[in-house]
Amino acid sequence: LVITFPSLASVTLKAINDNEIISEEMRLMYVALTIAKEQLFLIGRVKSEQALDKMVGTAIAGDKLPVSYRLSAKTPFELIYPIYAKHQSHSITNDLKFEQDINDLALPLQPKVEIQIDDYSDIKPDETEEDKEDYRTVADIIDYQSGQPEVERQIEQQLAFEYPYQKDMVKPTKQSVSELKRQLETEESGTSYERVRQYRLGASTYERPQFLRQHQKRKANEIGTLMHTVMQHLPFKTERMTEDELDQYIDHLIEKNIIEDDAKQDIRMKEVVKFINSDLY
């Protein structure tokens, strides 16, 4: 018998997540309630009238629903109905209502709330014989015969079609024509492709100047950018690269000025080799 209990961290994260969800729902409710100009129709659904009576009996702290009630509400209706019900009700004293000074407002500004309760059995659509006839099971669809064998054969042929160029569908990277042209022009001019790529992305990812890094190691984000550059330019071959070939390949990147001269010491060679030997390569 194994008994498990949720950790304190998981309970805390769940409570934070639920709180954010309720807060977002209340912001959406605020927008929905304030965007109407003349009329606003609120439609809710409950299982029984006892649920409505329970909402009416909800305590209101000051002018707000209790935090515990707001966090436990399952639907927006549970947050709206207790307030409107107290405002509309004439069977409770004024000090228990949400709006205590509503009568002090000018008549055109006073809200007019009308609560209408309908039983679901009275408003649900009736099932007709036509609806029952339109209902078909999967077996009915499979056994269905249209009487047009030529059309059926054409449909079956189209559904069973297989793309003939399967190898072209599993290419590891995607490059646009503009990017290929830009890369070719960069290689011909001897300019670092990494510098051109920064303009294409629209974000500056230049490393710090050399005089700022003379006695400092690369930061984590700079090492991440370096590793990303190496992985991006890895050649995909049928025969996997060896460690010596990878070392020569990185020297080639340095010669092309794609990475800096002192960047080799910060490249995590073991992780790159692990990737090359994995099924992802």
Description:
This protein has 281 residues and is mainly α. The chain has 3 domains: 8-118, Rossmann fold, CATH 3.40.50.300; 176-206, no CATH class; 211-281. 49% of the residues lie in helices and 0% in strands. The chain contains 13 helices and no strands. The longest helix is centred in the first third of the chain and has 27 residues, at 8-34. The radius of gyration is 34 Å and the shape is extended. The model is unreliable at 96-100 and 195-206 (pLDDT under 50). GO terms for molecular function: exonuclease activity; helicase activity. This is Helicase-exonuclease AddAB subunit AddA. It comes from Staphylococcus nepalensis. InterPro entries: P-loop_NTPase, PDDEXK-like_dom_sf, Restrct_endonuc-II-like. Keywords: ATP-binding, Exonuclease, Helicase, Hydrolase, Nuclease, Nucleotide-binding.
Key words describing this protein structure:
single chain; 281 residues; mainly alpha; Rossmann fold; 13 helices; 49% helix; PDDEXK-like_dom_sf
Characterize this entry briefly.
This protein has 281 residues and is mostly helical.
What average pLDDT do the residues reach? 73
Give the count of structural domains: 3
Indicate the multimeric state: single chain
Number of extended strands: 0
Topology at a glance:
Blueprint (H helix, E strand, L loop, with lengths): L7 H27 L14 H8 L10 H6 L3 H13 L31 H4 L5 H6 L3 H6 L5 H11 L17 H13 L3 H9 L18 H13 L10 H13 L13 H8 L5
